[in-house]
Amino acid sequence: MSGLYMMVTITSRKHMPAFKKNYRENQVEVGTVSLGMGTASSSILDYMGLEDDEKSICFHFVTAATWKKVKKSLQNQLRIDVPGTGIVFVIPMSSIGGKRELGFLVQGQEFVREEESTLKETRHELIVAIANYGYNTQVMKAAEEGGATGGTVLHGKGVGMKRAEQFLGVSLVSEKELILIVARSEQKNAIMQAIMEKAGITSKAGTIVFSLPVTDTAGLRILEDTEENQ
């Protein structure tokens, strides 16, 4: 999936509206917002000019060309290089489940789909499923049938969902759940396919699924050794 990235924004909750406005102006429409808490000490917060450690974490999807434009805009308009404004970073994507889903995520951005990309020596992938609220059990059941051994669920809110019907032929609710699954690279396709077939975009779960490369892991060796010895 050369040239396509997941853009992650972490900023205070009061600043997030300005970021979302900036993204819309740069044709970045679709994303998911979750809430979080920062871990910085009060002295660090004072130094950076922050009043509290309540955070918004926003996930969007951008092409290489869009990211270059967005980065320049963040620096010039939102002064992101000033301490306390927030941070934004991108992670290369390896695959997205479905052509319609890809079109929905990158709407407004010029992108030509290429072959799936993999990093050298990458043994694992992070599978991310974004589902309608209340359907994480259905998604995990499908993932387990595809070979997954477990996952983690986060609560979030979708943005840009009103345009889903135009691209997908279905309407999507704004309340979302993010299901994170770390799996071996050779299992990725089976897990994603199972989610698409049994909890995909046309089901009540309304799930969009994609994957990100994982360069290294800790804590999975014992589980994998057990599976290999069965």
Automatic annotation (TrEMBL):
Sorted alphabetically, which PROSITE patterns does this protein's record hold? PII_GLNB_DOM
Classification via InterPro entries: N-reg_PII, N-reg_PII-like_a/b, N-reg_PII/ATP_PRibTrfase_C
**Name of the protein in question:** P-II family nitrogen regulator
Q: Which organism is it from?
A: Blautia acetigignens
